[in-house]
Amino acid sequence: MSSSPTPNLSTSQNQSNNKGSPNPTSDSSNQDKISPIGIQYTLKPKFTTSALGCGTSPLGQIGQTSDTAIPTTIISKEVEHICCGGWTSIFVNHNNQALFLGCNKYGQIPHAQTPFVNTLLIPQNIKKLTKDQIACGDSFTAIINEQNQIDVFGSLSIPEPLKNLKVWKLYAKFDWLAAMKEGVNDHVYITMDEMSDLIEVKLSVENEEITLVTSFGESKIAVLARSGNLYVFDSEPHKNKPPNDNNNNINNSLENNNENNENQSNNNENQSNNNENQSNNNENQSNENQSNENQNTDGKETVKGCLTSVVISPIFEKVVSVASTRSRVIILKSDARVFEVINGRLTLVTGYLGLPIFLFAGGASLGLINYEGDCYMWGCGTHGQLGNGAFLNAATPQKVMLDDKKVEYAAAGEEHTLFLAVKENQHAVLLPELMQKEPLPMAVVAASTIQFGFKPPEFDRKF
């Protein structure tokens, strides 16, 4: 009689060895490997991980002819990683080949010849990729090429400094792209179409290691460090400001006409003074520009050509995972509690079972994966993207219907969701590093190794 694998409750040796190294090397002799969500799972038989999807499919995102509210298999085996754009699905197989499905309206699927791709497409003109070398937003896909530089397919145009930068890791969501420079893991470069400059985001705490960059609402970007500190960068002040609207121009012109009628008699008298002051203004302006070039902005922000450097400070600590729609943000703390961030305050999320270890979100849907491999989703579900069998919205977490499979990773787009899953008897994960220092998560894991220790049977229930 075979017994289920016993989770290793101690901090893994692989994690400690790879800490601080932006490009950890893999060793085939190791018995554990790192999953896409940053936790560890026991090495399983080769090619057992499958990709499933639910939600809308008119654009081909999940390879179905109609919407589906129950996850269906897209690729039955050999899947190593999945990621979602707004209307695009990307899969990386065991050979490090990228496969694409979905919308190609903006050319976000490399070398695709049709506006929609509803059967798996493997572009032949791109190199083999790892999960860190590809990312996608609503209307673009970014890939690290053989020269370790960024190739962008779709509507996003990147600034010149980023084109020449050698990078090793990419993040993207909605309309922004983030890249990490080779040999560096404590700051990240961020760009979007509405920005004229490339933003270099640095962390105020020294010796931090960035593990995740994701959205934090529609205009903010979250940066999560290995220490559990959560930083937030606000992109709104760095966007190009639109010109004044027509109403303001009309009001200004009316006011100016009234003032001109009242002050017309004084114009001739002031004209000579204006001419005299103009030369003084030009001189003062040149002196002001020279002083601005030599002025330090107290270490917070300095502008150098097309590169703007910004230092951000942490707003939350002991954060294991973070995810966001365009309007809602959820975070997972190290004590296994999930909160929604509302007006800067934390509101507890309830209604799910198990010990949550990972969060994800799409355009309007939220989700979590627990230690047991179950997945719960809530939010917008009118196209079946919650995977609970209904085409309805859900205010509280609803369990995704996956039959005999367990979820290791998930990603969501605007109206579809992808799941990376294994057979139930092949699922065995380790807690995230921060949770291994907390008593409650460790107690739950210890109880789960004892038969009926955490969930006693009905006939033996005492309470």
From TrEMBL:
Residues 1-34, 234-300 are annotated as: Disordered. Residues 246-296 have a biased composition (Low complexity). The keyword Repeat applies. Residues 1-33 have a biased composition (Polar residues). Coiled coil: none annotated. Keywords: Repeat. Gene3D superfamilies: Regulator of chromosome condensation 1/beta-lactamase-inhibitor protein II. RCC repeats lie at residues 373-423. InterPro entries: RCC1/BLIP-II (IPR009091), Reg_chr_condens (IPR000408), Ub_ligase/GEF_domain (IPR051210). It holds the Pfam family RCC1. This is Regulator of chromosome condensation. It comes from Tritrichomonas foetus.
